[in-house]
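Can't paste images in this forum, so I'm doing it all in text. The chain is below; anyone willing to post the predicted structure tokens underneath?
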Amino acid sequence: MLKLVRFVGLIMQSIIIEFLHVFGLVAFLLAAALGFFRLPSWLVPIVGIICGIVADKFIDQTEVIALLERAASANQRGGFLVIVYIVIVAVGYVVGAYARHTLHRRKIAQQAPSPAATPSPAAKQPQKRNRSGSSKT
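Text version of the structure:
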């Protein structure tokens, strides 16, 4: 249990480092766009793996190593970065899908007419008059 808590803490620290590099934020926004535009969720691990490999091979992380020493040394392992980016992309996808749902709900609320504005046509039926002019039938 303690190892699991430490692992989750290490992932959280690595996510902070990746956001400081801005590439993590770019991956997050890309995943949010995937979720917002209803692209299939099976793209989440693929985008996470691609972003993790790109971050491992091409992004220099020496600038922020002093901030979080253990997370920075864990980020030097490519497999760990893939896990970190899968988490970033999964959370971004959920945020994008939730944003789409919220936007859709607001559009529906704005388009719905207020109940007092439209009178019901069945509220009053015109009464038939008989030949003598009274309203009784």
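The two ends are 83 Å apart (CA to CA). The CA atoms of residues 65 and 73 lie 8 Å apart.
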